[in-house]
Design brief:
By secondary structure, the protein is mainly alpha-helical. The chain is built from nine helices and no strands.
Length: 221
């Protein structure tokens, strides 16, 4: 129930972001007209984000306040319910990042096919990544052991979450220092989890190899 409520809140925020961008573009259009650069729609989207930095910064600050409130809400739950909420939340975070990353990564192929994605769609995808990465950062900061154990079980999640790091430069002038620290910390923790997980896998494979070798040695005897 609580997670469904969060999804509703996030959807409302998504609509709020759209209204901010539209309002900002309408205001800017009275001053100058931004020409659509079809050659590189990603750069066009980033230019619009930076042009509307004041509006989007205010939105992001409000979003971060809601995230902190939700973290406090999770902290009131017992360990079992807390784990359920966090698992479902991470699943939703990963899904959203994967969809948004796919849209952005497909830009070049779309251009080659003669279709140009709308810059507003790219803006929404970039901000979806930003929102979800910052929320994941909150989770791993406040519930480090639980989140690490959950993520290690789904190695694909680690790659998808780390993929989002390459887009953080797009938010220059919008992300405050504390949020930037949260995102940087999350990326660092993910790299450590990935490294530890790979070491555990290598160790496990070595043990399996030794057991297999021992088995065949006994058969020879």
């Amino acid at each position: 129930m609580e997670v469904k409520l969060l999804r509703v809140l996030m959807f409302i925020k998504f609509l709020f972001l759209l209204s901010i961008v539209v309002h900002a573009e309408e205001e800017n259009s009275t001053r100058f007209k931004i020409q659509s650069i079809k050659i590189d729609p990603l750069q066009t989207a980033i230019f619009k984000i930076q042009s509307n930095a004041d509006y989007l910064r205010k939105y992001f600050v409000r979003y971060r306040e809601e995230c902190i409130d939700f973290i406090k809400f999770i902290q009131t739950k017992n360990k079992s319910n807390r784990k359920i909420i966090i698992i479902e939340l991470i699943e939703e975070i990963v899904r959203s990042i994967q969809e948004s990353s796919t849209l952005i990564n497909n830009i070049n192929s779309n251009i080659n096919n003669g279709t140009f994605p709308k810059s507003d769609d790219i803006i929404n995808a970039l901000f979806t990544i930003l929102e979800n990465v910052s929320l994941f950062g909150d989770l791993i900061f406040h519930f480090p052991d639980m989140v690490a154990k959950i993520v290690r079980l789904e190695k694909k999640w680690i790659e998808i979450l780390l993929l989002s790091a390459q887009y953080t430069d797009s938010y220059e002038g919008i992300v405050d220092e504390s949020s930037n620290a949260v995102i940087s910390s999350a990326i660092k923790e993910l790299n450590e989890i990935k490294e530890k997980s790979e070491k555990e896998n290598n160790l496990s494979n070595k043990k399996k190899s030794k057991r297999s070798l021992s088995k065949y040695m006994k058969l020879d005897l």
